[in-house]
């Protein structure tokens, strides 16, 4: 079987623009070429567990990486935290307001609050965790509208179907008609980490490691920041 | 890959998938319409399943079967054939998702052919294969063609199974539907709208043709 | 020579018939629902009796005890159904030639001449009149070189004056082709004009067998 010249990287779809730019840079330096498979982290994890040919996995939360680890498919010692993210509350641009704190969300004027489905979407999982830690979940839960993805949660706010949404800060820039009302400070909120790892069955572990290392370097960090993510150095 | 390339790639895969399922699908449709055989109920159910199962579930099933460790994938790997995360997986997903529609529509077409014609042909000495080719198929051709067009339209819009077994790999397996998903997820609504418009026009044309054909009846 | 012994049930209908026929033209006569078409279908192999046996000229077509059940395409039985069923997507010639068997088929000219359909040969089936369709269907069945001809109400779809015109063709087939005919009719006059044996059926049973002197 001929050796594949490009590595396959499965990555959370929210990282599409950032990673595509980084891979262009990577290729420009002559380090190698990268084929991306962007998707929902839970689908990506399932693909790896069911034997899809992936070299590197970058997940939008620890839970999906744990799924792959539990299946014994994470190359020992290769798992590294790549990016940090913060939760943010967004509201419709035509009804802007700022919150003085997360407790303001309990205000009855927020009749419907969209979250990524707390059962499956990483951002939703973290949002629920945070609200529980703040003792707000019980009050807010009846008003929660679970969305199939962060994009759908944002769409709910943009169209006015929801009064607010809790998403990642990096997602907020994607929405044209929603503005950020509150960002959960790094120390306050849950520790949101995007982990990256090499898949044990990778046919090109050396090339995979090279790319993973590049992602933790300075030029990648600048590109991540440009797209609204916080690299972990 | 720009919009044209994505569209061209999607169309080519949809055509390949349709061509692959038409011969076996039409024969199966005729058998289900006209013959009693052992395991008939099982085959009927299997063929209908992709229609009622969530597409992602079908995709996962295909992934498990065709990955390198899978039942089928293992054999193919020895022959040097990779399916998962390649265009072959795109065609596979489109074919599997289009098959139920093809078989059901073609079967309905065959069932509308008066059995008397086939009975008489049999008394005139024609074996089942000859009856199928010279009587059943010619008399049901508008429905069979409609079935193929419907399967093609389904293949064009296929997303759930495709994204699981073929992945969303720009330049390699990104179809129209998958690209639209990617663009909307990253907030590139304008690009998404362009592709949505293309997909809508092509699907509309395909469905219109299909309906038009079903309404035609030869003699 | 036809030897028939069948029991067949469908829904609330049950047929039980036993007969040996040695005639040139036998009519199955009786009210609708008596089982006449069912007998034809059984001989042609389009219906399978629950038990029994069917043999034509000593050749066994069906035998439940010997587990023989020849499919229709092997029975060499010509069949003209009540609705004629000419293949609509073929012209007359292709209909006629559909069942042609190199060894046992009569010459096309002979059949076409006898039934006087020569000038229709290149027409489309949809252009034919009722009587013409009947004759073409008859010709199609004859062209397959059958050892037995089954006709289901051959004159039913045709109006009375036309019947008088078609009857001679049927008589010609009976006399010139020397192929035994079994046909279904519920018209007494039709029966008397053609048959030398009349089998009366009612409610799935043979009620009477009459031999008509010719």
> CA-to-CA gap between the ends of chain A?
38 Å
* Total helical elements of chain C: 6
Q: Enumerate the strands of the largest sheet of chain C in spatial order, edge to edge or round the barrel.
A: 7-8-9-3-10-11
Strand order of the largest sheet of chain A: 2-1-3-10-4-11
Q: Which oligomeric form is depicted? A: heterotrimer
| CA radius of gyration of chain A | 18 Å
The count of DSSP E runs of length 2 or more, i.e. the number of strands of chain C, is: 11
Give the count of helical stretches of chain A: 9
Mean pLDDT of chain C: 89
Q: How many strands, what sense, and barrel or not for the largest sheet of chain A?
A: 6 strands, mixed
- Number of separate strands of chain A: 11
Greatest interface: A-B, 28 and 29 residues
What is the helix fraction of residues of chain C, given as a range? 25-40%
First CA to last CA of chain C: what distance?
A: 18 Å
Provide structural commentary:
The complex is a heterotrimer of chains A (233), B (219) and C (214). Chain A is of the alpha/beta class. In chain A, 34% of the residues lie in helices and 24% in strands. Chain A has nine helices and eleven strands. In chain A, helix 1 runs antiparallel to helix 9 and helix 2 runs parallel beside helix 3. The model of chain A has no long low-confidence stretch (mean pLDDT 89). With 219 residues, chain B is mainly α. Chain B has ten helices and no strands. Chain C contains six helices and eleven strands. In chain C, strand 10 and strand 11 form a beta hairpin. The two termini of chain C are 18 Å apart.
């Amino acid at each position: 079987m001929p050796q594949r010249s490009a590595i396959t990287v499965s990555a959370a779809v929210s990282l599409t623009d950032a990673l595509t730019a980084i891979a262009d840079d990577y290729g420009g330096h002559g380090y190698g070429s990268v084929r991306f498979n962007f998707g929902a982290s839970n689908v990506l994890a399932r693909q790896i567990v069911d034997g899809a040919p992936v070299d590197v996995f970058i997940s939008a939360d620890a839970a999906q990486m744990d799924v792959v680890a539990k299946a014994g498919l994470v190359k020992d010692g290769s798992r590294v935290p790549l990016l940090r993210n913060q939760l943010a509350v967004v509201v419709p641009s035509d009804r802007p307001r700022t919150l003085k704190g997360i407790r303001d969300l309990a205000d009855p004027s927020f009749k419907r609050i969209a979250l990524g489905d707390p059962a499956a979407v990483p951002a939703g999982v973290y949002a629920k965790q945070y609200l529980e830690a703040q003792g707000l979940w019980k009050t807010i839960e009846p008003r929660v509208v679970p969305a199939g993805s962060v994009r759908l949660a944002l769409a709910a706010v943009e169209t006015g179907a929801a009064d607010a949404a809790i998403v990642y800060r990096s997602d907020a820039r994607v929405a044209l008609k929603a503005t950020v009302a509150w960002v959960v400070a790094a120390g306050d909120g849950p520790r949101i980490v995007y982990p990256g790892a090499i898949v044990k069955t990778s046919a090109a572990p050396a090339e995979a490691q090279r790319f993973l290392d590049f992602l933790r370097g300075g030029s990648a960090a600048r590109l991540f920041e440009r797209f609204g993510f916080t690299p972990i150095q | 890959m720009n919009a044209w390339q994505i569209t061209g790639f999607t169309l080519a895969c949809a055509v390949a998938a349709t061509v692959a399922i038409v011969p076996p699908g039409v024969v199966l449709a005729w058998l289900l319409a006209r013959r009693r055989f052992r395991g008939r109920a099982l085959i009927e159910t299997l063929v209908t399943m992709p229609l009622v199962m969530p597409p992602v579930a079908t995709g996962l099933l295909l992934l498990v079967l065709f990955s390198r460790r899978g039942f089928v994938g293992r054999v193919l790997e020895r022959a040097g054939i990779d399916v998962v995360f390649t265009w072959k997986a795109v065609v596979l997903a489109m074919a599997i998702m289009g098959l139920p529609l093809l078989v059901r529509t073609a079967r309905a077409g065959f069932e509308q052919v008066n059995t008397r014609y086939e009975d008489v042909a049999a008394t005139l000495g024609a074996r089942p294969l000859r009856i199928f080719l010279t009587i059943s198929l010619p008399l049901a051709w508008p429905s069979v063609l409609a079935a193929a067009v419907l399967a093609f339209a389904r293949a064009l819009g296929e997303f759930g199974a495709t994204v699981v077994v073929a992945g969303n790999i720009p330049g390699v397996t990104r179809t129209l539907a998958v690209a639209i998903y990617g663009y909307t997820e990253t907030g590139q609504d304008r690009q998404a709208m362009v592709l949505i418009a293309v997909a809508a026009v092509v699907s509309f044309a395909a469905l219109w043709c299909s309906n038009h054909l079903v309404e035609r009846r030869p003699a | 020579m036809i030897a028939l012994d069948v029991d067949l049930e469908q829904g609330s209908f049950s047929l039980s018939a036993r007969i040996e026929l040695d005639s040139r033209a036998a009519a199955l006569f009786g009210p609708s629902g008596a089982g006449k078409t069912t007998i034809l279908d059984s001989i042609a192999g389009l219906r399978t009796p629950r038990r029994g046996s069917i043999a034509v000229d000593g050749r066994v077509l069906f035998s439940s005890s010997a587990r023989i059940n020849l499919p229709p395409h092997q029975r060499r039985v010509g069949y003209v159904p009540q609705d004629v069923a000419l293949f609509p997507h073929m012209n007359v010639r292709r209909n006629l030639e559909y069942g042609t068997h190199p060894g046992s088929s009569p010459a096309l000219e002979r059949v076409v001449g006898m039934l006087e359909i020569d000038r229709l040969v290149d027409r489309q089936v949809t252009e034919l009149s009722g009587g013409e369709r009947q004759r073409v269907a008859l010709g199609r069945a004859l062209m397959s070189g059958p050892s037995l001809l089954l006709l289901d109400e051959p004159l039913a779809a045709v109006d009375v004056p036309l019947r008088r015109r078609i009857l001679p063709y049927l008589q010609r087939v009976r006399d010139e082709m020397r192929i035994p005919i079994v046909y279904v009719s519920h018209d007494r006059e039709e029966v008397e004009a053609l048959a030398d044996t009349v089998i009366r059926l009612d409610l799935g049973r043979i009620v009477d067998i009459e031999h008509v002197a010719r």
